[in-house]
Task: structure prediction
Amino acid sequence: MALLTGFTVAVTAERRRDEMAALLTRRGARVVTASAISIVPLADDDALHASTMACIGLTPDLVVATTGFGFRGWLEAAEGWGLGERLRSVLRGARIIARGPKPCGAIRAAGLTEDWAAETESTDEILSRLLADGVAGQRIVVQEHGEPQTEFVAALRAAGAAVVEVPVYRWVLPADVAPVRRLVDQIVAGQIDAVTFTSAPAVKAFLQVAGESSGAVLARFGNGVLAACVGPVTAAPLISYGVPVVMPARFRLGALIKTVTDELPLRSRKLRVAGSALELRGHAVLLDGVPHTLAPAAMAILTSLAARPGAVVSKEQLIASLPRGNDGHAVDVAVARLRTALGSGRHIETVIKRGYRLRLDEPVA
Result:
């Protein structure tokens, strides 16, 4: 059995979406993809062309490279416009500061050398060092990473620097937001176990598309749905709403997948029922380690019974737990299908005129 068998994980990234989905699927997860943002093609971006010309004209003293993907894309776009060598010449004459190892790799691949790199991979560390060194009178180019670095740039200008912002890639809402809206509905309905985010703009765009449902989504993140972010910059918008977030120690895609793989099984409900080890996961139950995929109604019944292990749960309470409500007959049908899916009726006891209960032995350690 794969580690994420029975769990449903959502991927909101556009770039490397298929890679993330493949890694999660390989670990047994059911994957839902809904890109919350889309990248404006660099070659067609007039704002990038204009800022590149401004950078060449500025002959900067210092360049801040924030992402490897963005730095490479900037140079590739400049090459396409016939500005590649002029831009490289300007960069060679400047001190280059990298926000972590990925931009360092892109800088070196371009035949350039960084002056130093932020160990924390944050612009806060870069800003603190620059302000401590003093930037008055310096010409600084800031390569953005998906959205304006408003506070960072404002602080540099307030300290006396002349700053050119380079919007190397800009995020916009996807042309079709229907997949995101479907994901929002699935989260609110309790059909998603974890949502992964790889950029702060994706978090903001996701909540923007959620609209009036954003409050319900945030509530789910606080109770039952794992919010997994690649790093603290990505997590910041959710943390500002008080949402508990998990993130890897290393801010990398593979580490994010590992964090989800480690965390979700810890959140499953484990019980000892009628001599069997029963573990509840998102859309499946493991019975003595064997996965059984359940229909939403059957899973809702089992989850409701497991929430009151060993106690009788009335039909009225079970009706309320069904995805579409209905009546006592719907409960009986769901219970019958649940028993069939589990391969035996011994795990769920019918208590005449009262309801149903799990034949609980003892909790599994």
Notes: The chain has three domains: 8-36+173-265, 42-171, 269-358. Residues 271 and 363 are 5 Å apart (CA to CA).
